[in-house]
Amino acid sequence: MSSKSGADSSRRTRRGVTSVDVAAAAGVSQATVGRVFSSPGKVSPATRDKVQDAAAQLGYVPNVIARSLKSQRTNIIGAVVPAFGEYWQSVLTEFSRQLATKDRQLLLFSFAEPGDVDGVLASVAQYRLDGLVLASATIGQDQLIQMRESGRPVVAFNHPAATGIVPSVSVDNEAGMSRLAMHLINTGAREILYVGGVSSASTDQTRYRGASRTLGEHGVACTYLEAGAFTYEAGYKVAQNIVERQPSPDAVMVSSDEVAFGVHDGLRAAGVQVPADLLLTGFDGLSQSAWAGFDLTTLVQATDVLVARAIEVLLTDDRPPESDPVSVVVPGTIRYGKTTAKTP
Amino acid sequence: MSSKSGADSSRRTRRGVTSVDVAAAAGVSQATVGRVFSSPGKVSPATRDKVQDAAAQLGYVPNVIARSLKSQRTNIIGAVVPAFGEYWQSVLTEFSRQLATKDRQLLLFSFAEPGDVDGVLASVAQYRLDGLVLASATIGQDQLIQMRESGRPVVAFNHPAATGIVPSVSVDNEAGMSRLAMHLINTGAREILYVGGVSSASTDQTRYRGASRTLGEHGVACTYLEAGAFTYEAGYKVAQNIVERQPSPDAVMVSSDEVAFGVHDGLRAAGVQVPADLLLTGFDGLSQSAWAGFDLTTLVQATDVLVARAIEVLLTDDRPPESDPVSVVVPGTIRYGKTTAKTP
DNA sequence: ATGTTCGATGACTACGTAAGCATTGAATCC
DNA sequence: GGATTCAATGCTTACGTAGTCATCGAACAT
Prior knowledge:
2 copies of one chain form a homodimer. By secondary structure, chain A is α/β, with parallel strands linked by helices. In chain A, 44% of the residues lie in helices and 16% in strands. In chain A, helix 2 crosses helix 3, helix 2 (19-26) crosses helix 4 (45-58) and helix 6 (86-100) crosses helix 13 (303-315). Chain A is elongated. Chains A and B meet through helix 5, helix 6, strand 2, helix 7 and helix 12 of A and helix 5, helix 6, strand 2, helix 7 and helix 12 of B. Strand 2 of chain A pairs antiparallel with strand 2 (105-111) of chain B.
């Protein structure tokens, strides 16, 4: 029957082996087991081996929940992200990848409607997260302030309107769009149409400002048109408006790649050739922009750098109590595709 | 000075208001505060109001960590997902959306290399998750078994090889690809090339089986070619092999949409017209497959249904101790695009 | 030989919540 | 009017870990 003792102890295993169990098995105190897992250097090699053997035998795994309760750190970073959109998905993935290398996990809070954000933020508060990424350009000022008041590290990702309210990391939206505008001017465009996604998104506003300022300085006309969503479909649909427009533009600047893809295909469906009849630019540098079917001129965001900086801001939270929140701006790179290629 | 008492208590607020603080403020016991938040019906209305007022005043938010420690439930579902790929990103987003409506959160464990999975699984074990989604078709049998032994609800998402080992939810990969094969036969294809992504992925194997079986039954030739990755680039590159092939195929079936996009563009770059010279099918039904530039014939997975079923399996974990794990198979729908349109 | 130092270890407790059990007071019944 | 019942609430403890402090013994210096 003594041979059954192993099975016996594994019965208790079902609902969790604790450090106390390991301590008993190894003939040491719970404190020593804890030390073996948190600061192994403070335990003699002999004891350490004994404990590790016992732990392996019982299948002991430290309980992060309990550790978090005691240490007040969860090693979990929260991310508030819109439920849709290629861009945000790619950002999310990058965060997850980079956090994994730092032994942090990402807890996802996605929201479909801007109105859902409040519910999400309430839910966020319950988890004692080590940090929170606000990855959406439509989060309101009051919500940002509420997050700042939570007393936990926060960073706004690519949300220009958050600058000065909470620490933020963004690509240089204004300069990027400005450079794209210069490129169009240099390519000969004189009548430019700007297609935004959702005008309430702060990225949308900032990007448009970059375009209109530069175009204005060079005496080039620029009109704003709102697609209504940051989606392919919205872009496809708005293409119809573009072709009917008078005077007909010779270039279209779009706020985001995903919308630009839709505009691209919508224009083609309407019989407009890009770039022969109309130049086209996007923004974001999604991987699809390099696909042969599009080969879109766009501003490529170095997502890996942006994310790395955001994580840095979150984890090294050395805010002197009441100083201004940091604001990191990362420059972008223009990708020159055939959608703005000079046609001889 | 008594006017400062408010500020005084908010100083303690900095590092977390607890139910004890609320109890003191409301003049009740901690237990009563707890009841107000977990089973309000057991508290008299007068007391309830008092407590709720005090809680609101102090900005009390229940600590989920502590609750989890006590209740042994975290309300968090883990997801082990590959770090790349449009398909998995869309699945992930859908999980997050649906779980949010059930007051569950999604903790992300992404991995870049198949070899990283073991590390991820070790990390997963530390969190006492309420359930775990294994969303990858390359997780090994031993790893699946290890997860099953953890004693927590697990579901394999679209990983045919996991069937019978852990509960699983998949689209009908074999039947779907079989139906696409029939469609090609009916459209007149007689020499078919099958392009897989990574042959070790169980979806890849199952899909190929569906194609080859049906094609074989109808006396149509079928060769397997491996792209090497489930990416656009891999597809683009393999297109070169396709055009050089003898006898030249009249249709290409691809294991996944993303690879198919690459094949599509690669073929075009090589001067091959789809569908005039060659028919093309994908698999997954990514949103891009409907984009005008591709208009790809593919098998559309009802991701929302698949995810809903997976969540159902996870949350209603009524496994009779040693019965066979459930296996849910959801049929797909063919999307007929112009890549297989009969050309007169 | 005795005091000193230091590494190794154990006992104890706090973290914030929830659930079981104990207590109270008021309303009900005979 | 006293016993019974029940709703409302308080008291206590357990969840699993980590840090503080105390203890112990061995190595070392005087």
